[in-house]
Each structure stands twice: as structure tokens, then as C-alpha cells.
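Z., the sequence and structure:
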Amino acid sequence: MLNNATFGKPIAQHQTIQIKLADMATMIEASRLLIYSASAKKDRRERCDLEAGMAKLLHRDSAEVSLEAMRILGGNGFSKDFSVDGIPGCSLLVIGGGTNELQRIIIARQLLQKYAI
């Protein structure tokens, strides 16, 4: 995927790109685990407002990963030869299910109930 060359070497060999890849993979995995956690609670018929809100918030933020992939690939990020060309539609995640601010309010309320101060 990252066979494009810059400054005489594949872009994947650049430390800056490797750091971006690590951050992107971490964001995706954290999002996936929060979704699994909320789903497991829902399957057990437990309240999962807090976990679902956190999962929605992080999942929306993780949609930025596709945009970062497109930036890394440059013009190739828009090519049909790369799998990121269809991903920008996930920017709709920012709207569906409530704004990030709304999710943060839901999360905060749930935390205040769970850990009464």
C-alpha cells in the first residue's frame, strides 16, 4: 500500500509516516474495543449508555483515519487502485447519531451518575 517513494525511499520507511500509522491503528483498535464493550453490555441486557456514547464519540473521531490515509497517499488516495477512495463517505458519521458535543454531554451525565460527586 505504501510503495510510493519520496526522497528516494518508500514512504512507509519515513518515521513520520510510521508514527501516523501507529496512531491510526491505535485509534481504530480502541474504537473497535469500545464498540465490543457496549455491544457485550447490550447483549447482557444491561444499560450501556456510557459505553455506547464513548464508542460513538471515538468511532466518529476514528473516521479521520481515512482522511489521514488519503493525505499520506497524496493523489493516489483518490485512485480506485487504493482502498481508501470510498472511505470519505464515513465523514457522515459526524452527523448521524448526534454531534460529538452531544455525545460528550451524554458521557459526562452518565459518569456523574456512576461516580456521584
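The chain has one domain: 5-114. Residues 66 and 87 are 6 Å apart (CA to CA).

Let me know what you think.
H.
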